[in-house]
Design goal:
Blueprint: E1 9-13, E2 19-24, E3 30-34, E4 39-44, E5 72-73, E6 95-96, E7 112-117, H1 121-126, E8 131-139, E9 145-153, E10 166-167
Antiparallel strand pairs: 1-2, 2-3, 3-4, 5-10, 6-7, 7-8, 8-9
InterPro entries: Aldose_1/G6P_1-epimerase (IPR008183), Gal_mutarotase_sf_dom (IPR011013), GH-type_carb-bd (IPR014718)
Pfam families: Aldose_epim
Protein name: Glucose-6-phosphate 1-epimerase
């Protein structure tokens, strides 16, 4: 469980020893989020049915992105910019944010985790903008998966920047 015993999450090791967060709702729904990429790799309803597709070719080996689930594309979606396709957020290690600023969404359910990504020196060389990307992953009252993103310009000079962003979701379907 988290440091706040009223929340329903657990940090454990996933594939290739990567840290992941398991969220569990008391009614049975669940989700897993890898800190590598801030990447949701599983979302199960209260019947235990997997709702996301994860490729059998997913390697879980940085610097490769995880294939399937819900990748975070930032600061660029697709090839709409000068960076590698889909930007770098999905290829970075995010941290758990135990003390996030208040979120505008009402999360009465305790099954959530807050993650944060800040640029490394390496990213600043290819995209010279200081930012804070905060991501809340939560299970809603009916087992709904809710992702809330907040991106803040942290440039000390106040210089604006542009970006594109996407949740690149892969849903599981019974017959493609």
């Amino acid at each position: 469980m988290s440091s706040d015993k009223s929340r329903y999450y657990e940090v454990c090791k996933g594939f290739n020893g990567l840290d992941k967060v398991l969220l569990r709702d008391p009614r049975g729904s669940s989700a897993e989020v890898y800190l590598y990429g801030g990447h949701v790799t599983s979302w199960k309803n209260d019947h235990g049915e997997e709702l996301l597709f994860l490729s059998s070719k997913a390697t879980f080996k940085p610097p490769k992105a995880i294939r399937g689930g819900i990748p975070i594309c930032f600061p660029q979606f697709s090839s709409h910019g000068n960076l590698d396709q889909h930007g770098f957020a999905r290829n970075q290690f995010w941290a758990i944010d135990d003390y996030p600023p208040a979120f505008p969404t009402n999360t009465s359910n305790k099954a959530f985790v807050d993650l944060i990504l800040k640029p490394s020196e390496e990213e600043m060389k290819i995209w010279p903008h200081s930012f804070e990307f905060r991501l809340r992953v939560a299970l809603g009252p009916g087992g709904d998966l809710m992702l809330t993103s907040r991106i803040r310009n942290a440039n000390t000079d106040g210089k604006p920047f542009s970006f594109t962003f996407a949740y690149h979701t892969y849903f599981s379907v019974s017959d493609i």
